[in-house]
Amino acid sequence: MSAERPVDLLMRTVVDAGLCTRCGTCVGACPEGVLSIPDPTGACLPAAGEGCTSCGLCLAACPGAQLAFEPFERELFGDAPSHGLLGVVRSAWIAHASDPGVRRGGASGGVVTALLLDSLRRGETGGAALFAPHEREPWRGWGRIARSGEEIRAAAQSRYHLSPLNTVLGEAASSGTPLAYAGLPCQIHGLRRLERAGWRPRSPLRPVVGVYCGNNLYFAGTAAVMRKLGVRRLADVERIAYREGEWPGSFSVRTRDGRERSVPKLHFNQAIPFYINRRCLFCVDLANELADVSVGDGWMKEGSGGGGWSVALVRSETGERAWRETIASKAVVAEEISVEDAARMHGHAFDLKKRGSFLRLDLWRRFGCAVPRYDRRPPREPFGRRAGEILVSAQFALASSKAGRLIFAALPLGATGRLFASLRAVWMRRSSRGPGGA
Question: pTM to 2 decimals?
């Protein structure tokens, strides 16, 4: 009997086991083009064709089944100090893009776009690998190389659906010019593993800019919210924005007849328990801990008026150089903050990712389910928090069932959206006091 090919092992131990993050790294890594994602708005899973040469890059780069953070931290960041929630941090900042249009066009303060634009303007890069609106199907995103300021600006904002950005790595590897990179935690996990496996693009992807991520959703979640807004055919969609207008923004759909329909972004969040990718429930990285610079919403400025703000964490020498040069060129307005302030403004999300994820990992493992392995130690939790996580896990399981999604389809968008926004506000207040809301 012939030996199992690496691609078949990947399919059996990761994809079929329910551990695929949908990062797209295996597709972008394959030098023979054996892997593809045939259904990006559905399950968004890789599929294998013929022609595998058993190079093993797809399996070596995959972050789905396991990830060891500490070896990467030593290689990438040296002896910089590490924080239990944020990872390695050289400095923390609250910032926004200086250009009002860039700031307004971003998910929060437009800092990622400002960083990429400034690197391009200074000639440090010839573009960026990023996730952008698809050129023929504007209702979804795709991985692409943006080589002009206009293309980088067009890719601004978050897109809350599964996003296999790293399918673009094959194209990035052959780029004749240096490229920056902007991605989610799982995507950067895959990129770092691929680099360690010996993948050598013609020019390294630097700086690697990471976006905070609490979870990601199947595209069906976006489609369900659109149906609630009266948009039933994807072919009618001209543009989707998930963070349009005054921060924190609104989910907005423009159809080809010129009509705009929207709902506050915090109301869009009601789709999360019904359409979350289950693998996201086991991720322990909120703040994109293997990026050169990590960027998220600057919630400490929420309600202050004047536009959105971002929190930025500088982790590596490469990130520090890019960040300082961006400040010096006045592309961003920034003020340094304490690492504890940076952690405090995302207390509710850290409760989900740094406490809840470890409890879910243990719970699902006890039920015999495949779960990823990390080198992070779980915190000690009181009985009440452990019992509460059982209820949370049951809620996710029930909500994401077929019956749960039918119930979601019947719920009134405005009323349930206000309920979810209120629950978020309570969660943020409790979690900002420390573990357990004490």
Answer: 0.95
Backbone angles phi, psi at 79, to 5 degrees: -105, 25
The candidate with the shortest Cα–Cα distance to 298, out of 90, 91, 96, 89, is 96
Placement of tokens 């070896």 in the chain: 71
Angle between helices 111-121 and 317-328 (to 10 degrees): 80
At residue 437, the pLDDT reads 35
- Asked if the model's pLDDT at residue 19 lies above 90, the reply is yes
Q: 183 and 44: one domain?
A: no
Residue ranges making up the domain that contains 369: 346-437
Work out the pLDDT band at 433, boundaries 50, 70, 90: low
Measured distance CA(117)–CA(150) in Å, rounded: 9
Q: What is the pLDDT of residues 221-275, one digit of tens each?
A: 999 999 999 999 999 999 999 999 999 999 999 999 999 999 999 889 999 999 9
Residue in the block written with tokens 């996990």: 189
Instruction: Identify the band that residue 412 occupies on the pLDDT scale cut at 50, 70 and 90.
Output: confident
Residues 325 and 431 in one domain: no
Residue 260: the pLDDT is 97
Residues 17 and 155 in one domain: no
Domain co-membership, 143 together with 153: yes
Residues 399 and 291 in one domain: no
- For residue 311, give both structure tokens: 């929190």
78 and 195 in a common domain: yes
Instruction: List Cα–Cα distances, 325 to 96, 117, 164, 341, 383, in angstroms.
Output: 15, 12, 30, 24, 48
Does residue 47 sit in the same domain as residue 76? no
pLDDT value, residue 362: 95
Task: Provide φ and ψ at 314, rounded to 5°.
Answer: -95, 125
Q: Which residues contact 152 (CB under 8 A, 6 or more apart)?
A: 113, 116, 117, 120, 127, 128, 130, 146
Confidence tier at 305 by pLDDT (50, 70, 90): confident
Same domain assignment for residues 283 and 357: no
| DSSP state letters, 318-344 | HHHHHHHHHHHTTSEEEEEE-HHHHHH
Give the closest residue to 151 by CA, choosing from 181, 170, 136, 130: 130
For residue 28, give the CATH number of its domain: 3.30.70.20
Give me the DSSP letters along 12-79: IIIITTT------HHHHH-TT--EE-S-TTTT---EE-S------HHHHH--SSEE-HHHHHHHHHTT
Task: Find out whether 11 and 4 touch, Cβ atoms under 8 Å.
Answer: no
Number of structural domains the chain divides into = 3
Residue 140 within a domain: yes
